[in-house]
Write a structure and sequence with these properties.
Elements lengths: L4 E9 L4 H15 L2 E5 L2 E4 L9 E10 L3 H14 L16 E7 L4 E2 L4 E2 L8 H10 L12 H7 L6 E5 L15 E6 L5 H11 L3 E3 L8 H7 L1 H26 L7 E3 L5 H9 L2 H15 L7 E6 L2 H11 L9 H17 L5 E5 L9 H17 L4
Parallel strand pairs: 9-11, 9-12, 10-11, 12-13
Antiparallel strand pairs: 1-4, 1-5, 2-4, 3-4, 3-8, 6-7
Helix pairs in contact: 1-2, 3-4, 6-7, 7-8, 7-9, 8-9, 8-11
Length: about 375
């Protein structure tokens, strides 16, 4: 799973209710473009390059898997939605909203529609001053200068002062105020993708299952009867070791941990794959281990219908998974649901993601975050 891109945007407005325009723009970016993880203070600056009323400006840092040209397209759509009409020539004009793509990771992009880093960022205090608040470690890849150095040599002498602080969307979420979340789901449900994405956005630490390193997994899919027991035993041993080792490195009172599995999945899969006598032996060993394992503060189950699971499995292309049958997936799903029903003290949230694409559709991802937040706030039952 590839990491998300880090993008810095500069937002400005000098028509109408400038503060409201900025706030609305940030909300739309968060909902339609990428997760707004940091927002600078609000600055007021004189118009740059033409005579007009002063601007309100800020910078926002977003996370997304989208490519640079897609982000630019989305930002132009937001400008249009908010009522901006771009003039056909290159002259400056007053505007209700202006969104500029300043940085895209450490990349250098030059083409007719996009230049990254933005060609004027080193010339504009209303870009540099907000930028140093939220992305001060960056160094210009072409000029080889830090943000601090760029400010010190900037020839822009216009006034640019802080007006106020700005709220931003992630402030309403309290995910990072709990210690340990487990995200579970059937094969192909997207649990690793979601766990990694949330950890990126909320500065959490991940515990990700090492399934790809299991030598018995390809053998199991070829001969289930022969390799089921060594597969499940090796998974149990590895999950126990990983969780014990990883959690020992973290401070459970300070760190926000998010895992893409809970060790109880070992028993769920074993019950489906093992013969009855093997399962009895397995469960005896599992019960001893399970008593020692810390329980998550929130257990999230991503439900996805079988047809969608099979599509996802085919799309990600792991050769040993391509012959997985729908009946096997249905048994696994039923095992999870039976486990969830049996839990009295575990806070559980079931999210149906059958019709969601939280990787490509930002609105779907925000919907999931809202579901998690509501569960944490209202502490409702399953």
């Amino acid at each position: 799973m590839n990491s998300q891109h880090q993008i810095l945007l500069s937002i400005g407005s000098n028509l109408g209710n400038r503060l409201k325009n900025i706030e609305q723009c940030i909300s739309l970016i968060h909902l339609e473009v990428g997760t707004v993880v940091k927002v600078s203070s609000l600055y007021e600056s004189e118009s740059w390059g033409f005579e007009s009323d002063s601007f309100y400006n800020c910078a926002v840092l977003i996370h997304t898997h989208k490519k640079a040209h897609k982000i630019l397209k989305n930002c132009l759509q937001i400008e249009k939605k908010m009522g901006r009409t771009r003039n056909s020539d290159a002259t400056y004009q007053a505007r209700i909203i202006d969104v500029d793509l300043i940085l895209f990771d450490e990349e250098i992009i030059f083409n007719d529609s996009l230049q990254i880093p933005h060609r004027h960022l080193q010339d504009r205090l209303f870009v540099l001053l907000p930028m140093i608040e939220i992305f001060n470690h960056w160094k210009h890849p072409l000029l080889n200068k830090s943000v601090t150095e760029l400010i010190s040599i900037c020839e822009d002498k216009t006034k640019c002062n802080v007006v106020s602080k700005l709220d931003f969307p992630l402030q309403k979420f309290t995910l990072d105020q709990i210690n340990y979340i487990s995200i579970e789901g059937n094969i192909g449900a997207g649990k690793t993708t979601l766990a990694t994405k949330i950890a990126d956005d909320f500065n959490g630490k991940t515990v990700l299952e090492r399934f790809a390193d299991n030598p018995f997994l390809p053998k199991f899919y070829k001969d289930k009867n022969r390799f089921a027991f060594p597969l499940e035993m090796s998974f149990l041993a590895d999950r126990y070791q990983q969780i014990s080792d990883d959690l020992a490195q973290f401070d459970l009172f300070k760190d926000f941990l998010i895992a893409d599995y809970h060790i109880f999945k070992s028993l769920i899969f074993a019950k489906v794959t093992l013969a009855e006598d093997e399962f009895r032996l397995y469960k005896t060993l599992f019960d001893i281990i399970y008593k020692e394992m810390p329980k998550p503060d929130l257990y999230i189950y991503l439900y996805q219908n079988t047809d969608r699971l099979l599509q996802n499995i085919k799309r990600r292309g792991r050769s040993y998974e391509q012959d997985i049958e729908s009946t096997y997936l249905e048994k696994i799903n039923n095992g999870y649901l039976d486990y969830i029903k049996s839990q009295k003290d575990l806070k559980v949230l079931i999210i149906d993601v059958s019709n969601l694409d939280f990787l490509k559709n930002q609105e779907d991802y925000i919907y999931i975050l809202n579901q998690i937040q509501n569960k944490l706030v209202f502490k409702s039952d399953v």
